[in-house]
Amino acid sequence: MARAVNNKRRAVVTLIAWAVGIAIFFPILYTVLTSFKTEAEAVASPPSFLFFDWTLENYAEVQERSNYFLHFLNSVVISLGSTVLGLIIAVPAAWSMAFFPKKRTKDILMWMLSTKMLPPVGVLVPIYLLFRDASLLDTRTGLVIVLTMINLPIIVWMIFTYFKEIPGEILEAARMDGANLWDEVVYVLTPMAIPGIASTLLLNIILAWNEAFWTLNLTAAKAAPLTAFIASYSSPEGLFYAKLSAASTMAIAPILILGWFSQKQLVRGLTFGAVK
Amino acid sequence: MATAKSNVAARIMISPAVLLLLAWMLIPLSMTLYFSFLSYNLLSPGMERWIGFLNYEYFLTDPAFFSALTNTLILVLGVLIVTTIGGTLLALLLDQPIWGQGIVRILVIAPFFVMPTVSALVWKNMFMNPVNGLFAYVAKSVGLPPFDFLAQAPMLSITGMVAWQWLPFATLILLTALQSLDREQLEAAEMDGAGPFSRFFHIILPHMARAITVVILIQTIFLLSTFAAILVTTNGGPGYASTNITYLVYSQSLLQFDVGGGSAGGVVAVIIANIVAIFLMRMIGKNLEA
Amino acid sequence: MGSITLSNVKKAFGDTVVIPSIDLEVNNGEFVVFVGPSGCGKSTLLRMIAGLEDTSGGTIAIDGQDVTDLSAAKRGLAMVFQSYALYPHMTVRKNIAFPLKMAGLPAVEVDKRVAAAANVLNLNDYLDRRPGQLSGGQRQRVAIGRAIVREPTAFLFDEPLSNLDAALRVNMRLEISELHQTLGTTMIYVTHDQVEAMTMADKIVVLQAGRVEQVGSPLDLYRNPRNKFVAGFIGSPKMNFIDGEEAAKENAATIGIRPEHIELSTESGRWKGTVAVSEHLGSDTFVYVNVDGVGHLTARVEGERPVSHGDTVWLSPVAGRIHRFDAQDMTL
């Protein structure tokens, strides 16, 4: 397999790769560092990178001044809620298409995808008006509904590709062993599909957590998740770099960690299986 | 494969997903289409009336539309160029044997997981701010006057931010494609006397062509709808200098309350997205058969 | 008991008719092999018996009871799949216990039967492993174990040995035959390999294009093939077919002679030819000969015969071992 590569070349390539990697990561790193500075240090010139008085006061203040926890909770509820709801709808559909393909199955899948390609702005006005009339504006329920629907095609698609990888013979073996449809789903299909469902869950939480069109347009103070809450820092009346950084760090940290775990699924999910 | 009983079950299982998506797509879309032929402003309720294609005429002849179309193109093309070329180079780099490959990979992928509003605000304030930003500091320390990115080159600055977010996506997908290349093919080419450049252009690039196309198409779909990055940095300004189609429709519908005009714009956006979507669907469809 | 009766069974996928109509009787305790080239419908037929595939017409009865509309789970049959189809998330123990669990047997009884099956199949050391940690032969044994624990009315095997290497295949063939002797349960076995059919079967069903070409005991098919297809399919190396003038001499459109029924001489004989290739297996020698006006013939002679490429040899058919076929390829 691998050829002997001389170590000198490897050292040079390693150096370049690390330099590029750190450069790309730098804005995130700098944000995290700034979150531990005082506001004065955050805008000091020359900027300090490591040798400043580390402080946690920004984190405390962000919570005190703006009820950060509420927005964090909104993000959790909305992304988890829409993902779980999406899975409940998607798993049976994907099961049906993967194990009982019909002539139309392919068309249905393609059509589902095409709804994902609809630009949100094309339905912004009616959704806004419908939500206003149904008193769903600025509610978690409303956002859960929207995010479930916009991510449903991706969930169906991902679960479908995972189900496709389960050999049909195993399900038939279960049938021969006397399992009825329910046993088959509970004892054989579900345990085998769990890794795939888990990674779909992960990816979808990431997508929902970061969704920033509907969350910005359909929420105000009450149901605003972190995307919308952070956007409120764009007002020019005061530049609170350190607090912005603290709020940002808390907003991206959980998803950054989840994201690193789901690199592989990311490719699969976002390309609808076109690249594996 | 299937027996009659399980066929019925299969049909019942698929129904909720299909019906919900159908409703989600058809109801709002037909409402948008209907509104786009109305004179309908939220500030003067009860005054709706049918005005035919007048909304389209206003929307398409508005100078803001032309500027929004240009900005959309700049954003989409700019990001695509940076991410596909940069992504290819990064993928080639990360495919090399290096120490700490896993960690470098994680560093490179990270920007994709940053929510758009955070990314935009961090770039806007901590890097591009003409007084306190890091770029201004760098400019000053080499004796240059600070540059007000978002005021003087808003579209380019936004393109830069968005490209930073999408570069990891392109890299990750291209790297996946690159790693699926049969190493023996490269070794065969080497035995046939191909140098590194001809190996890249004759073996590696054709192998990645498909993944590159997928990257371009999927990014285009998402980039056409760029919204948060504009909203929190420039609000589309100065003037219309950084307004794209999505933002224009948003401001017309929810800032000026012109439902009719906004809907016409929405229909235009749908048509533009559909042109791209058709190509993408074909690519994915082909893969489905394989 | 485990007798299976197919009457006028049909299968069509949409407009494509795979099996036009089949009648077949499988007696209790019999080892029946469905053999035929790929695409002949043998697997489909097995899956219809299993209940994994709907029948488009006709009836299937097990022990006289019509099961045509019964689901696979309720037919009381067990099946061993080509891919083994083990449950990857369960240990060997749980795999084998699964059908018993489905049948709702008490845990004590389940343990007892799993232990007994593991003993028979030499799986005691692997009971707590997962299928992914087993070799091909061990997986095969687990699949068989899963089939035997529930004491089915009949076993169905769908090309179970095709994923094993040659040596292991011979071993497993013997094991399955022994299992049949011990259990005495009806077995239906699908394969494309005529050697498996010949060595294991009480009764062979030769299928082609969804039709039964012939049913009979291995030697019956070997000695008296009903047509040219069966004659060519059964026996290895393949039967030699000669048409034209030489066949006309025997009053047939085509004559067939098995390689083992050709005598080889370096001095004289019926047909004179040149050796193209000779394969020395030790026990036998396969000689491939080009004969002018007749074509390529294969002869199988016992022991080590010192012939090699380019040698001139004479071939003669053994009297009474010539098969004669008419223009419709039927045996005369």
TrEMBL record, chain A:
Would you name any one GO CC term? plasma membrane
Cross-referenced Pfam families, in alphabetical order? BPD_transp_1 (PF00528)
Its membrane topology is listed as: Multi-pass membrane protein
Domain ABC transmembrane type-1, first and last residues per copy: 72-262
What biological-process GO terms show up in the record?
A: transmembrane transport
Arranged from A to Z, the UniProt key words for this protein are: Cell membrane, Membrane, Transmembrane, Transmembrane helix, Transport
Q: Which branch of life, at top level?
A: Bacteria
The answer to keyword Nucleotide-binding applying to this record is no
Spell out the subcellular localization from the entry.
Cell membrane
| UniProt cross-references to InterPro entries, sorted A to Z | BP-dep_ABC_trans_perm, MetI-like, MetI-like_sf
Question: Where would you find the membrane-spanning parts of this chain?
Answer: 12-33, 68-96, 108-131, 143-163, 184-209, 240-261
Q: Which family does it belong to?
A: Belongs to the binding-protein-dependent transport system permease family.
> What is the name of the protein in this document?
Carbohydrate ABC transporter permease
Q: Top-down, what is the taxonomic lineage of the species of origin? A: Bacteria, Pseudomonadati, Pseudomonadota, Alphaproteobacteria, Rhodospirillales
From TrEMBL, chain B:
Q: Does the keyword Zinc-finger apply?
A: no
Question: Primary place of residence?
Answer: membrane
The portions of this protein that span the membrane are: 12-37, 73-94, 106-123, 155-178, 208-232, 259-281
Might you report a single GO cellular component term?
A: plasma membrane
Q: Where in the cell is it found?
A: Cell membrane
Which keywords are on file for this protein?
A: Cell membrane, Membrane, Transmembrane, Transmembrane helix, Transport
Q: Where does the record place the ABC transmembrane type-1 domain?
A: 69-280
Judging by the UniProt lineage, the source's domain of life is Bacteria
Gene3D superfamilies, alphabetically? MetI-like
Q: How does it sit in the membrane?
A: Multi-pass membrane protein
Signal peptide segment: none
One Pfam family cited in the UniProt record for this chain: BPD_transp_1
- Some GO term, biological process aspect, for this entry: which one? transmembrane transport
Q: Per its UniProt record, what InterPro entries does this chain match? A: MetI-like, MetI-like_sf
On whether Hydrolase is a keyword of this UniProt record, the answer is no
> According to its UniProt record, which protein family does this protein belong to?
Belongs to the binding-protein-dependent transport system permease family.
- What is the protein name stated in its UniProt record? Sugar ABC transporter permease
Biological source species: Pacificispira spongiicola
Automatic annotation (TrEMBL), chain C:
Kindly give the SMART domains that the UniProt entry links to this protein: AAA
A single GO cellular-component term from the record reads: ATP-binding cassette (ABC) transporter complex, substrate-binding subunit-containing
Q: Which InterPro entries match?
A: AAA+_ATPase, ABC_transporter-like_ATP-bd, ABC_transporter-like_CS, ABC_transpr_MalK-like, ABC_transpr_MalK/UgpC-like, Mo/tungstate-bd_C_term_dom, NA-bd_OB-fold, P-loop_NTPase
Instruction: Name the domain of life.
Output: Bacteria
Pfam families named among the record's database cross-references:
ABC_tran, TOBE_2
Query: Which molecular-function annotation in GO is an example for this chain?
Result: ATP binding
Which family does the UniProt entry place this protein in?
Belongs to the ABC transporter superfamily.
Q: What is this protein called?
A: ABC transporter ATP-binding protein
Q: Which organism is it from?
A: Pacificispira spongiicola
